[in-house]
Amino acid sequence: xxxFETIKNLPSIWYVFSFLSVLTLFGALGTIMSKNPIHSVIYxxxxxxxxxxxxxxxxAQFLAAVNIIVYAGAIMVLFLFVIMFLNLKQxxxxxxxxRTIAFAVGIGIVLGGLLILYLRKxxxxxxxxxxxxxxxxxxxxxxxxxxxxxxxxFELISILLxxxxxxxxxxxxxxxxxxHF
Length: 181
Description:
By secondary structure, the chain is mainly α. Helix content is 75%, strand content 0%.
């Protein structure tokens, strides 16, 4: 039984999955086809939110929260500020040519077809219903795994990030008498 047949057996999830998939594709197409860069960023935020909803359907709440906080929050705000600083209202000369857009659409169709072809040929193992742990993607199980089995690497990464933060502050600090450029 394929993944799509499994999803079709659950009618309410199938409708939610279908709606989110259409919303994700609409956001992705709006991102690459919008002529206004600010609209493109807003479409990308819509895509990230719908992907987070897909993560929730897959019982990966931590990934959904990280996707919303990091990508839809921080990075998209940064993109929006950069676009507003650069004032990119005029359309670039390269994007005015239809040949470039047609080439990009053609490459996208070929890559999508290859992806579908390989997904249909691949064999997947589905979880056993009797032994499946429903708490696999939850934040609580991930936290207990990080703080029990991977405590040393977790603490070493926090020390590395602290050293990088101190280094960035020291590099950014101005000396007395230094000129401002």
